[in-house]
Structures are given as structure tokens and as C-alpha cells.
Amino acid sequence: MVKYLFLAFYAFLSISYSQKIQTNLKLHRIDGRKISLNQYLSKGPTLINFWATWCGPCKKEMLHLDKLASTYKDDGFSVVSISIDTQRSLSEVKRYVRSKGYKFDVFIDPNQQIFKKLNGNIMPTNILVDTDGTVAWMHYGYMPGDEKNMEQEILQVLK
Amino acid sequence: MRAILIPILFYSTLYSQINLSGSYVSSFGDSQNDFNYFDNRININGDWNNWSSWIEFEHSNPPELGRRNIGLRKFRIDYSTNNITVKLGDLYEFWGNGLVLNMVDDQSIDLDTGIRGGLFSYFSDGFSVEMLVGNQKTWRSTSQAPDFDERIPNYQINNNIYAGKFSFNMNSLVNEFHFMKTKDNHYLPITKKTNQLDHQIYGFNSIFANQIFDINLEYFSGFKSLNVLTGILSSNTEFSVVNGEVIRDDDMIAVFVPVGDSEEVEQRLIKSGFKSVDPPSGEGSISKGISTLESDLQNLESEIEATGLELEALSNRHGQWLVVAEEHFAAQSEKSSLPLKLALSKNAFVLDGWIPVKEADDLKNSLEGINLDIQFESSDAIPPVKLDNPKAVKPFEFFTKLYSTPDHRELDPSALLFFGYPLFFGLMIGDLGYGFCYFFLGHFLATKYKHSDELYQLGQIIRMAGFSAFFFGTVIFAEAFGFALPFLQHDFALDKGNADDVGFMLLASGAIGLFYVTLGLVMGFYNAMNMHDIKHAIQEKLSWIMILWGGLSFIPPWLFGSSLIGSRIGLDEEIEFWIGLSGFLIGLVLAVSAEGVVALVEVPSVFVQVISYVRIAALGVADYGLAHAFNGMAMDIGFSGVSIIPALLIFVVGQLVVFTLGLIGSGINSLRLQYVECFPKFFIGGGTDYTPFGYTRKYTHETETTV
Questions:
Q1: Which residues, other chains included, contact B496 with Cβ-Cβ below 8 Å and sequence gap of 6+?
Q2: What ipTM, to 2 d.p.?
Q3: Is the CB of B9 inside 8 Å of chain A's CB atoms?
Q4: Pairs of residues, one from chain A and one from chain B, whose beta carbons lie less than 8 Å apart
């Protein structure tokens, strides 16, 4: 076991050297279609946001994500919002998204495969990915004011 | 395992070819009722080009729920391109909204429905195919089996699964066909036998998704139990209803509520800053309507662009030829229509028209040798007017005609404008720097827009005005851009910041006004003699000269106690007073005899018109003050150590403001002093422009060819 833990520790060390994600991840969009992450990354940097209907801070944050998505849309920036609600809550996800009228695309990940793959642990999880798949910024949780920091990071990537 | 992992990790660190990331979750519980647990899970994700892997290690001894597990728990290797995905290992898929396949791994309730096997999927924009083969082992707790413990499962279901999915997209519809076959190995603890069960599922599901506002227009109204409130509400304002639905898009909001709640909801909306907007009337899908309109708009924009390019190409190809042809045919047309203007017989024609008297002999000589009978006659009809000025004065004919074309018996005021406009402008601006800039602005207009008569003349006027400002700025005011120029200073230089000098400037401006108003009246006297007779001239113009000068001679000593004119020309105060009073009264009598008692009312206006010229000094000081203020601000900031950039910014913006205001303010006022204060004294206008016979060619010339 100690050896495995050592290997795991080594793996964490390597994170600091190489943080890239697969750009051809297939995502389930809320309308039933499967979309490749490449479709967004080919236009510009993309912010992957994990949220759930039971997560209050996630919902507060989404208002800012919507504004950021609209503000930097012309620069190629996109927001990919992935709900990790279970299959039983999917109708609530659709209802929530429909009532808010967000501009960004909303996806579902009910078995949390994408969430795990991108090392999500805490809600909300935000991952800013550059066009080549490099993780430019990663942030867990949301406190009012975090959106300013997020905007700075987006601007940094857009430069 | 170790032999594989260590080189992978090592090389990933060195070259970053393989991207590794991971997460670690640990939970620990120590309870007095012995519900203790110590869960540790490490997830490691690796990516290398199109390959990715996932490994989960677990060290749960005991876990919160479930069976004890130490070691590798899950693994998977994926190969994924844009169209193809192959997965081998532990799979968690989600088909048919979870109704066909819903594999989850929820450790909080110890539920793991994952399949260990393989998956192949082909994916394109229009359709996708997925095939899955694997084995599922699900653990449950049952009291029917030995060793029952609700915390630790004791019963396993073992399934072999084969499944396929085909999905295709139709606009807003996503359709999926599913097939799944399972072979379940059900262990029955009571009989201690394993039963094999086969299941087959054939499924079809269709998901319809469309635009948020994609409802038909007719659904916004006409309900008995439902009210729809549509309008604008800031997107920053939260709004929700308990019984109803809110749909928002940016600042637009549509609230669907029962009729009974409608009033209350509307009041709440209004309090939140809601502005009602009636929903569009009509029928059919909104999104389709918008799409149609957007499509039409796009087509029109494309059409405009295409037409613009076509026009540009035509202009490049034929423009010059068209201008020349238009001129040529216009000349031909005028020539062809000439017989219609003539009194024409079988063998002769009669042509009459106006020519300037001094050109009569030239015309006669040039037509000598042709069988023509030329008769010169005077006429009572009002002849057209052709302004005849030296080249330097020509540009000012533009200002003259802007006011009115002079009558043929009147003096042409262009020369007065030529003299006065640059003088007033120059004195108002009185700055070497701005004068220089105005000169070049005028020069630019005069050279760049030579093809446009108006712009060319305006350019020439601004160029002269600029030169005048430059001259007075150098000789009299010794300043540039609001800064004093010490090397140009002399004893008679005027400082716009000095009260005494400003006083002198105001007085000098008044003197210019007196001169100009008098000059206008003298020219008016001449015109009146030409148009009427000496009596009219005396009554209408000399009278006002006497009122003006007489008034200025006697009113100041009488009203203010000091002489305005007499003391400056060495005239005795008493004599000045009586001469002035006599002249004023005689003038008044003459004016009343010509214009009636209205003349009494007009007396103050002649003095006001003189005073109006004081604006020459006032505007000069105002422009200087503005420039001085901006310069001062810029210098203060620049030298205070803040930064040179804001100082430069203030300086540049300030100078641009002064430059623009100077051009507009001084330009208009210089003209106004002529049009309003001086012209009415002598100028009536109303003449007709002289149009020469024939067509004046601009782009072509006519060559006579004899064959």
C-alpha cells in the first residue's frame, strides 16, 4: 500500500508540470446531443463549470458565468456548464436552465465520469482550458467576488 | 503494475507528454456505537494524445458502507478521436435518459452498477452508433442470504450485458434506438441454486429541445385562466413566482401566472422596475419568425454589399467616361435646344441677351465678317449681375452670395469682406500657433478639394484668416498656443492677461466698430444715390451718420462725464458737446422725416451695433483664457511629478478644444459682424446671378474639325 501511495504522490507532483486535458472529450448536452469539447476549444478558451441544482453557490456563480460568456463571446471564449445531477434530477436541471435563459450550453454528467476525469471534488468546480487543452486555471467553490478573479484569468488567457 | 507505472510517471514529469492528474478523498469516522470507518480513495487520470486512462485505488478498512477493499478498485483505458471512442475497463454509461442504461458509482449508498467490459462508439454530427459488451457485478444486502449485515452486502447479481445504440438527429429532435440483452446469474440463497435469466430490451426514445422562447405567438394571449406579463426587467434583478413560470432572456421577461395572481404579480414586477412591453401579435413560431427575419436581413445585407461592389467596379470602369459623356451631351443638348429659344424664320434668327457693357465692343469685333446684325439696347428690365473682383477678393464672393447676390446698382460687399473677415478673425484669435494651424487647414482644403467650388473658396478664406491670426499673434500679441513668447515682445505688444491692455483692446474694437458701421452707412449713401437720389441718400443714410457721430460726441460727457472723441482730437469739450448735440438732433429729424417715428425707436440700435464689435476683443480674451487654463492644468500636473502622460493628454485635448472653438466661434462672429452689423446699412441684394450663354465645360473641350 505504501508503494501505491508513493506512486500516487508522485502522480500529484507531475500535475504541476503537465496539466492538459483531452480536447476531444464527448459531452452530453441537455438536448440529448453529444458534443465534442473540441467544438468549443477550436473557437477559443473554454471555462468548464461543474454544478448541480442542489448547489446554492453554483447557482449564484452561474449568473456571473452568463455575463462573462456574453462579454467575451466575440473573443471566442465559451462557457461549458456541466450538471452532475443524477438522472432523477434531470428534469429539474432542464427546468432551471430554461427559466434562467443562460446563453451558454448546458451539459449533463449524471454518472460523474467527466467530473471525475477532470478531478472535480467540490462544487462548483471551474476549469479554464486554453485552446490546446492546457488547464490555465482551476478553482473549487464559490464566494462572492470570485468572479472578478475568474474574469482576470479569462483575460489573461485571451491575451 | 509498478513496472508500468513508474516509467510512465517518470517520463510524464520529464517531457509532459503524458498528462497526469489525480484526486484523493479520505473520510474517517469514529463512533461510540462502533460505526467506525476509514475510507481512502485515490483517482489518477492519465492522458497521452488520444489515449487516456483512469485508475482508482481504494484503501477502505472498513468502508462507511460496503465491503472492505484494499488495492486497485477501478481502471479503464480509453482511445478517443473526434469520431471514434473505444473504452476498455470499468464503464459508466448513460443511455436513454438513464432508462435503458444508467451505470452509477455512488459510494455514499454503496451502489455500483458499472460494467467491466468494452465499448465502441462512432460519433458524427448527424448520427452515432455505440456498442457495449461487459459484465456487471452488483452487490446487495439481503436477509435471505447468510451473514446478513445491512452495512455489508452479502448477495451478488452477475450479469453479462450486450447492448447497442443508434441515434440520429433531426433538427430539434434527437432520436435513439436501443437494444440490450442480459444474461443474469441470480443466486437464490434459499435453494442455494443459481438461476439464469435472460432479458432483452428494445427501446426508442426521442428528445425534443428547442429555443427557450420558441412558443407560438398566439400562446401569449387569449387564455381564460392564464395571464402572460411580458416586458423588460433588469437581468440583475431576481424575480420568481410561486405559482407560475418565469422565462427570461437578458432583460426581457415573460411571466405566466394564473389570472387570480396576475394583479399581485404585476404589482411586484412594477416595484422591481418592470416595464411592460406588449407581446408581438400574430401567429406561428417566434423563433421561425426571427429566423426568417434574420435570414432576410442577411440576404439584404449581402445584396447591399454586392451592389456596392458592383457600383464601385462600374465607377472604376466607366466613371470617368460617364462624367465626360454627361458634360458633352449636356453641352450638345443645350446647343440643340438653342433654336427653341430664338425667334426663328426660314432664313434668319433673332437672339437677344445680356452682355456687360465693357465687353460689347469685343463681341462686335469678334463677330465681324459674319453676316449678323447686332443691336445694343438699354432695357428697364433688371439685368443679371456678374461679380467682378480681383483674384484675391474672389473667394469672398462665396460669403456675399451666401447672403444675397447684389443688385446691379449696389456696391459689391465682397471687398469689404475681404478686408474685414481676416481682420476680425485675426484679432480675435491673435495667436501665432493657432494662426499657423488655421493657415494649413485652409491650405489643405484649398488644395485637396479644388474640384469643389465651395470647399475651395472656404479653404482660401480660412487660409487668409489663418495668416491674419498668425500675423497679429506675431506682431501684436506675441503668443503661441496661449503661451507668451518673450522673444517677440516689444513696447506695443498687448497682453491679453493684462487688464489695461484688455481695456485698450475693448476700446480699439469699439473704434473698429465705429469705423465699420460708418463705412456701411457711407456705402449705403452711395447706393441710395445710385438707386434713388441725393435726398434719399441724405435722409436715409447721412441722417444715421449724424446720429451716430453726434451722439458719440455729446452723450458720453453728458452721461458719463468724459469725452469719447473730442478729447482725443483736441476739441474743446463745450464745442464738441454742442456740435454733437446739433448733429444728433439734425440727424434724428432727417431720419424721422424719411422713416417716420420708427426711427426714434431705432436710435439705440445704431450704438448697439458699434458696441457689438467689442466682441472682437472679448472673444480674443476668452480664447486666450481657455488656452491659458488648459496649459496651466497640464503644466501643474506635469511638473507636480504625477505623470507626464495625463499632462500631455490635457494639453493636447485642451489645445484641440481651443482650436475648434476658435474656428467656429471666431469664424462665425467675424461673419456676423459683417452680415448683421454692417451689411444692413447699405446692402439689399436680391440680384440675379449672371449665367453666361453656352455651356461652361469643366472636363472636356470642344475642337472644331472641318472635313
A1: B430, B477, B479, B502, B505, B620, B621, B624, B625
A2: 0.79
A3: yes
A4: 129
